[in-house]
Write a structure and sequence with these properties.
The protein is of the alpha/beta class. The chain has 13 helices and 20 strands. The strands form four sheets. Strands 1, 2, 6, 7, 8, 9, 18 and 19 form an eight-stranded mixed beta sheet that branches. Strands 10, 12, 13, 14, 15 and 16 form a six-stranded mixed beta sheet that branches. It is elongated, with a radius of gyration of 23 Å.
C-alpha cells in the first residue's frame, strides 16, 4: 500500500485547486477521480465566482467590500448559514481570485446576479479553468491523478484517525495511505435518486442535470465516520432552465434578473423575481402543474449579454426556445394563458413600477439590491417556458473554518477534510450565484494548508 501526504477525492474545481496548492507546497499527492475525465459539476456550472474588491471591479468603477459581500451572503442564506464559514470566505476570497489569475484561469467579465448588491459575479469558462489547473498539475511530479478510480470507503487507524482510502482502478480493488489528511471534494448527490428521495422528496419532478458521478459517495463515506450534515432542509432546485435541458443542451436563461416577470399558466405573477433563484425554484414548483414562463419586452431583450451563460437571451432566440409576439394578445395565445389575466398582471406590475412600489410582491430591484425594474411595454414581447432543475445539492457534511469535517458536537474528525459541493452549512436557506465555485477555490486551498500546517515537507 502506497503512502501519500494527501489524498484528494474528486477532480472538480475544489479538488483541482487543492491538488495544485498541495503540489506546489511539495506534498506527495494522489487525486482519485471517479469519472473518465476531470471537471465534475464544475464544468456544468454557469461559471460565476463571487469575489469582492477585485481589479476587474475597480476597472469597471464598481465599489464593493468584504463587508458587503458577507452581508449579502448572510441575507441570502436567511441568516441560518454558518457565519464563521462566511467570514472565512470573506477573508480569503480576494487572495483566491488573485491565485486563480496567477495560475492562468481567465476571468472574462462580471455581472450582477442572484444575491449580489453590486456586480461581483466574475465569469470563467469552467472547462478552461479545469484544464489550466490540470496543466499545472502535470508539471508537478509529486502529484498523481487517477481517472476511473472511484473511492469506495475510508478507514481509520488504531488511533481513530481517518488515514486510508479503499478505491477501484481498472476494475481492481486498491488502497492508499494518507499521512497528513484526506480531502473529500467529490461533489453532491444530484444524480442519486435514493438520496434525493430521502432528503428532497419535494423535488421529485425536477430535471436531473447534475454531474454524472454525483451520487453522494463522499457524503456516505464521511457519515460512516461520524460526520454531521448541514442545510438539507433547504434543498431546492435551480430555476430558469428550459424543459429540454435534461437533454444534451442545457439551455438556461435568467431574464428576470434583467427585468422580466414570472407568470404561471394562469397568467399571474407568483413571486418577487429579484430573490435567489433557488427560492424562485421553490415558488415555481408550487404553481399549477409546475408550468411557468418568464415574460419580457424588447427593453429587457436589449440587455442580452453575448456569450453569457445566464443572460444570452439572443442565444435562446436563435435556438428557437422563445415565444415572440408583437402584441400581448398574440403572446398569450402562444403560451396558452388567459389574455385578460396576463394583461392585468402586466398592467398592475407596470403601474407599481411607476408608483415606486410593487403592490403584490414588493419587488424593488432586478436582483437582490441591484438594478431598477422597467415597465414591460415595448414590443415585441417574449416568453420563455422555464422549469426547475436539480443541478447541484447545496448541502452536505459539516466543516469548520479549517475545512475539517466535524461530528455532531462540532469536533474535528481526525485526518478528514472536505471542500466544495460535498459540504453544507455555507449557503444556508438560499444561494448567492458564484459562491459555490468561490467556496471550491477558497476551501479547497484551506483544506490543504491546514492539513500541512504542522508538517515540514522535503
Amino acid at each position: 500500500m502506497e503512502t501519500f501526504d494527501l489524498i484528494i477525492l474528486g477532480g472538480g474545481l475544489a479538488g483541482m485547486c487543492a491538488a495544485v496548492e498541495a503540489g506546489e507546497a511539495g506534498a506527495h499527492v494522489l487525486l482519485l477521480e471517479k469519472q473518465d475525465e476531470l471537471g465534475g459539476s464544475t464544468v456544468l456550472s454557469s461559471g460565476y465566482m463571487a469575489f469582492a474588491g477585485t481589479n476587474m471591479q475597480d476597472m469597471a468603477g464598481i465599489t464593493d467590500s468584504i463587508e458587503s459581500l458577507i452581508d449579502d451572503m448572510i441575507e441570502v442564506g436567511g441568516g441560518v448559514n454558518d457565519q464563521a464559514l462566511i467570514a472565512a470566505y470573506g477573508q480569503r476570497q480576494l487572495e483566491s481570485f488573485t491565485w486563480l489569475v496567477q495560475h492562468g484561469v481567465e476571468f472574462r467579465s462580471l455581472e450582477a446576479v442572484s444575491g449580489h448588491s453590486v456586480p461581483r459575479g466574475h465569469i470563467i469558462d469552467p472547462h478552461q479553468a479545469i484544464q489550466t489547473l490540470y496543466r499545472r498539475v502535470k508539471q508537478l511530479p509529486n502529484v498523481e491523478i487517477l481517472l476511473n478510480a472511484p473511492a469506495k470507503r475510508l478507514l481509520k487507524n488504531q488511533d481513530g484517525r481517518v488515514d486510508r482510502v479503499l478505491y477501484e482502478v481498472d476494475g481492481t480493488e486498491a488502497s492508499a495511505h494518507a499521512s497528513k489528511g484526506i480531502i473529500i471534494a467529490s461533489g453532491g448527490f444530484a444524480k442519486s435518486e435514493e438520496l434525493l428521495a430521502q432528503f428532497a422528496p419535494q423535488l421529485k419532478g425536477a430535471l436531473r442535470i447534475g454531474g454524472r458521478g454525483n451520487h453522494g459517495d463522499g457524503i456516505r463515506m464521511a457519515c460512516e465516520h461520524g460526520a454531521w450534515l448541514m442545510d438539507l432542509p433547504y434543498l431546492n432546485g435551480t430555476y430558469g432552465f428550459h424543459p429540454t435541458a435534461a437533454g444534451p443542451v442545457k439551455s438556461q436563461g435568467l431574464a428576470f434578473y434583467k427585468g422580466a416577470i414570472m407568470v404561471n399558466q394562469l397568467g399571474k405573477r407568483f413571486v418577487n423575481e429579484s430573490i435567489s433563484y433557488k427560492l424562485l425554484g421553490k415558488a415555481a414548483f408550487e404553481q399549477p402543474d409546475c408550468v411557468t414562463f418568464q415574460v419580457w419586452d424588447q427593453t429587457v431583450m436589449n440587455k442580452s449579454v453575448h456569450d453569457d451563460p445566464l443572460y444570452d437571451l439572443e442565444l435562446l432566440k436563435r435556438r428557437r426556445l422563445l415565444y415572440q409576439a408583437d402584441t400581448l394578445e398574440d403572446l398569450a395565445d402562444c403560451i396558452d394563458v388567459p389574455l385578460e389575466v396576463l394583461e392585468e398582471t402586466i398592467s398592475r406590475y407596470n403601474q407599481g413600477i411607476r408608483n415606486g412600489e410593487d403592490p403584490d410582491f414588493g419587488r424593488k430591484s432586478l436582483t437582490h439590491n441591484y438594478g431598477n425594474p422597467t415597465p414591460i411595454e415595448k414590443a415585441p414581447f417574449y416568453a420563455f417556458e422555464s422549469t426547475v432543475a436539480m443541478l447541484a445539492t447545496y448541502a452536505g457534511v459539516s466543516v469548520n473554518t479549517k475545512a475539517q469535517v466535524v461530528n455532531p458536537f462540532g469536533e474535528p474528525i481526525l485526518g478528514l477534510f472536505a471542500a466544495g459541493e460535498v459540504t453544507g452549512g455555507f449557503h444556508g436557506a438560499g444561494y448567492m450565484t458564484g459562491s459555490s465555485l468561490g467556496k471550491c477555490a477558497v476551501f479547497g486551498r484551506i483544506a490543504v494548508q491546514e492539513a500541512l500546517k504542522e508538517v515540514t515537507l522535503k
